[in-house]
Please model this.
Amino acid sequence: MKHFTCVQDIGDLNVALKEAFEVKKTPFRWDTLGKNKTMLLIFFDSSLRTRLSTQKAALNLGMNAIVLDVNQGAWKLETERGVIMDGDKPEHILEAIPVMGCYCDVIGVRSFARFESKDADYREVILNQFIQHSGKPVVSMEAATRHPLQSFADLITIEEYKKTARPRVVLTWAPHPRALPQAVPNSFAEWMNAAGYDFVITHPAGYELDPTFVGSATVEYDQRKAFAGADFIYAKNWAAYAGDGYGKILSKDRAWTVDAEKMALTNNAYFMHCLPVRRNMIVTDDVIESPQSLVIPEAANRVVSAQTVIKRILEN
Ligand code: AN0
Ligand code: CP
Model:
């Protein structure tokens, strides 16, 4: 594996899962693989889990890790080519990226959708600039349209807890006060379809995701119907994708909040969310605190997904 940006990059999922469970069982077995190698983690956006779990993964492999918050202490970066740089941005990303590449062996990048241009977001302009100009393997730590380290950790978690070979997994939209990217639901859909689960997406009208990511999933507009018989409920907010609504909030309807009454419609489903989560907007206190809640094991598996990915890059 050279770069890691989407499900295709990991290849056969059964092979990847087997490797992930070995990493989970014996995390320090490859602690010299990354000797004298440096992992650079570049954050254009905030993070708790990704920042800590990806560093931990690199350290488990014997690497050094350097973390840079671009918006705190680094020069503000111009990202568009051809701009006369007489404004507030002293450095261009076209110099900054190759410079960063000089200081490391693997680069992780977090850069969310900006919601300024659907086209620029869905072309993954920032992530692709890192791939083109850094000269180093690039790991997406959530880009504009995907969050593959999260989805890989979600898949590992479902494999650990599922009670049937092909569980019914339901991705449900839930309300949030701010406009959030589609990266997590897009990526989750991409990985669930690749895993071949019975996969359902439910959301209010207007919140349709890019059909490329929806793929073979069933779309059910009635959340209660979608919950019936579910083995896993995966909640997430996202802003609108379709048409002129791109990046807009169309609803904050708390009738879509995941609560105990709706969980009772499921097949005693587990509750999942990538975190950070807004309690009593996305999910009620009692559901997230219930024994069926997997939010902490899911976050713990972020080290496993990151370590499996970085290990493969180092072995390449
Ligand atoms: C981000 C998002 O929705 O993409 C990160 C999730 C991992 N969430 C927020 O900004 C709250
Ligand atoms: N789930 C996740 O990626 O969390 P952070 O935004 O805190 O990294």
